[in-house]
Amino acid sequence: MTLTARAFPRSQNHPHIHHPAPPPSSRSFRNILRPSIRLKTTLYTLSLIIILLVILALNAGAQLSKPEGIPRPTDISRSAIDESLSDTGEGREVAQGKDAHLREGEIQRSFEEPDFALLSGLQPSQIGCDVPLKGEGSGSDEGVLVFLGIFSAAGNKDRRDLYRRVIIPDFPPDLVTVKFILASPALPENPLSSEAVTRSMALREIQAEMREHGDMVMLPIIDNIDSGKTHEYFKWVAKHYAGPGRVKGRPRFVMKADDDTILVMPNVISAFRNLDCADNIYWGTSAGRSHYFSEYFRGLAYAMSWPLVSWIGSADMPYAHVIKIEDARTGQWLRHLDPVTDPIHRLDMGWTMGDWNQLDITVETIALHWVKLDEWVIEQHQHLLEVWSSAGKDYSATSGVPPRDSIAKGKILPKGASEEHQRQKDLGWDVDGNIEN
């Protein structure tokens, strides 16, 4: 090879040297590597992804905005109205014996063993309670009689709106602070799925609802009633009203209630008005509770005095001590207290609280549970007003019956509750002892 030939390598395009054209596959590969082609390909891919996300969002929005006349997957089927309300929901698995495993192994031990955080923390008798109501203090340190937390779920906006219209206006805001207690919806396995889009849209709607009404608390956990939501609720209340001395807005008593429970406002006010919140008050009903656990009040609605809530909410308990059967778990926490220095005063309202179709509804009634359908909320609330009107009583904060009357009424087993208990026994459910007071 001559020097002239070596001066022009084969890879260069010399005008006197003929180079064969590269194969088609090689040309395509080189075109892809060109900057302009890469940019176009990237933009095309991004456009397809955006279109796909828009389609998923529109489908999710269509699911969320179905007309009210079309039941959503989480709605109660109207066809079940003819069945007993105890056929589904709270207590069914326990009644059938399916939760018998909760009395075994680690779960059983967690309901029996003491918790170091509760034992080592500031005890209720050391916390005390000095909460002036409106007109009792200087105004800057006034609190409320009851903080009412209604447990709700992200997708239950219709129920929250219904309660805002029908139930909550009954409660005087200077005596009762009402908040809906929520937690985050479950995280989807696939962050790019339609479920993820639906969850994001639901969270945005919740944030807008919170700004509009100011009556919601979002707890920093995934929503599951038996995964520690109740303890997180007490933690939030304890932290929100923490501080030495009198803290503005601090409640004398804290209540947890379900969003299918109608509380009879005059009797709720009457139940707590004359109680000393410095005492360890535990208020609710044991009527109809499961015999698998003892000394607890049913989760449809129960309350504790401020020192108990502060004590429980300030304890950094392990996960095993806050999960499973939330109302029975609350009863278990209270068993840690020293009966000498911190005795518990249990106020059992009995059969004045319970499933609405099993109670004898009178002016002594305190709470109606299992009000699953929206029309039932309206019907049962109206029925309560009629009962009070027929008795010649105003449905007002100052007209509640004395608590002793409700306690006496609650010791009488209603016919409906007895019949339902027998029906469950006939089905083979493990309910022996569930209706003992």
Automatic annotation (TrEMBL):
GO terms for molecular function: hexosyltransferase activity. InterPro entries: Glyco_trans_31. GO terms for cellular component: Golgi membrane. Its main location: Golgi. Signal peptide: none annotated. It is found in: Golgi apparatus membrane. GO terms for biological process: 4,6-pyruvylated galactose residue biosynthetic process. Keywords: Glycosyltransferase, Golgi apparatus, Membrane, Signal-anchor, Transferase, Transmembrane, Transmembrane helix. This is Hexosyltransferase.
